[in-house]
UniProtKB/TrEMBL annotation:
Superkingdom assignment: Bacteria
Protein name: Transcriptional regulator, TetR family
Domain HTH tetR-type: 15-75
Keyword DNA-binding recorded: yes
GO molecular function terms listed in the Swiss-Prot or TrEMBL record: DNA binding
Keywords, sorted A to Z: DNA-binding
Location of the DNA-binding region in this protein: 38-57
Pfam families: TetR_N
Upper taxonomic lineage: Bacteria, Bacillati, Bacillota, Clostridia, Lachnospirales
Amino acid sequence: MVQKKDWLIMAVRDTSIDPRLLESARKHFREKGFLGAQLSDICKDAGVTTGAIYNRYKGKEGLFEAVVKDTVDSMNSILEEAKTVDPNKLSDKELIGVWDNTEENTRLWNKRLMDMKDGLELVLKCSEGTKYSHFHEQWLEKMSDIDYDYLKALQDRELADKKISRKELHVLVSALWKLYTEPIVHGMSDKEIEHHCKVVGDLFNWSKAVGIKK
């Protein structure tokens, strides 16, 4: 007869448990949100006991964190990449190019977001009740700070004639973020997203918005 202690050791060594748990968790969090998902249902679909969760994660929130970790890391890496560039060291041409929001740039942004579609959908739609419930708002605040440094450099060189405040820029960045992420929230197909990229490229013109001088 297998003793409880021996069973726990066996569970730790069973490397097939984690992928099953995470896949089941994704399904239930996506369908019911964090607050509505039940650990018992997640375990049942994964074919494990609730003890398997507590042996690996700090309850339901720890499981949610594990499911979205790659996405959160990817989103934070976007900020870190942006911080590595000093806008004051860019040439005028390079600085103006940052604000060239063409259809191709929109497509590249959408591709990057689509690569983390599953996790991003959970963060945007299903994270209420977790520490990630305001992650996208906090991320936008940080991105707006970075973008404002670029805008300030543009204005200091008198390359743009519209005096947009930090607050107004945040509103604009948030609006563009909404345009980028809504296809994911609404489950649009790749073909629909391709069309959407063209529409966004035509609709959102940063050069005009900040008044870049021709």
